[in-house]
Amino acid sequence: MDYLEIKIFINSANFAETSEIIMAMLGDQPFESFDEIENGIRGFIPEDKFNESEVSDAIKGLSDFGVTGFEVLKIQDQNWNKTWESNYSSVLIGERCFVRAPFHEARPDVEFEIVIEPKMSFGTAHHETTDMMLQFVLETDWKNMEVLDMGCGTGVLAILASKMGAKKVTAIDYDNWAYENSLENIERNNIKNVRVYLGGKELIENSTFDIVLANINRNILLDQIQHYSNAIRTGGKLFLSGFYENDVEVLTLEAANYGFLCKQMKTKNHWVALMLEKQK
Length: 280
Known about the structure:
By secondary structure, the protein is α/β, with parallel strands linked by helices. It has 2 domains: 3-75, ACT domain (Alpha-Beta Plaits, 2-Layer Sandwich); 125-278, Vaccinia Virus protein VP39 (Rossmann fold). The chain has helices at residues 15-25, 52-60, 77-86, 128-138, 156-163, 176-188, 218-231, 248-256, and strands spanning 3-10, 33-37, 40-46, 67-75, 91-93, 97-100, 112-115, 146-150, 168-173, 194-198, 209-215, 232-244, 260-268, 271-278. The longest helix is centred in the C-terminal third of the chain and has 14 residues, at 218-231. The N and C termini lie far apart (40 Å). The relative contact order is 0.11.
């Protein structure tokens, strides 16, 4: 899959706050991630989901927030991967989980070690949302649990849940890169009870789980919460991330419509992760 890099140029005295607002306000567009550049931010959109007029109108509508212009660049898979690998570092989560690439030195002193080959798939533990989701995983009892990792990316959440005692883990992603990368990483970590599938919410219509992990984005989560509710057993847990603080209200209200009660929230640099419990 080819991606487009959209550079958005910002002129603001309070750049940090403004950039966060702009990223949040672009949540309706199919951006998969953002990061900061010297004079603004950049976001990444799969080329097949890019609607030039819609994205252009959305960005131009942010001129009151200091947006002075933008440009669109096409990124080939190979170039993306080279950039990803050149900036990839190991990560230690909660002093208990060490996520590294094959080219990093092992840490046998850490309770859980996960080896992730850095490719295009989202979920390398560097992003705030993956960090918080991994923290939630570390804080949860997984013994004998049947688990769904929806939008699995690299498979890092599924792998940690398995290492912590999950009985059975289903990992699903609609992106072929993520699907292939999850398969590779599961084999690399010698995980035997995780099954990976290529597809979307239609794959869980006749399945039930004790716990669902979904680190995706606001719009997809809003679309899929009803499907998670149908798939989660009463008393089960739903962990969500991939959105900002100002998205919490709309997500928790939508979740409440389907029997979920928010029990815990984590925040990091305006990103949020939630733990909800199925009440009925």
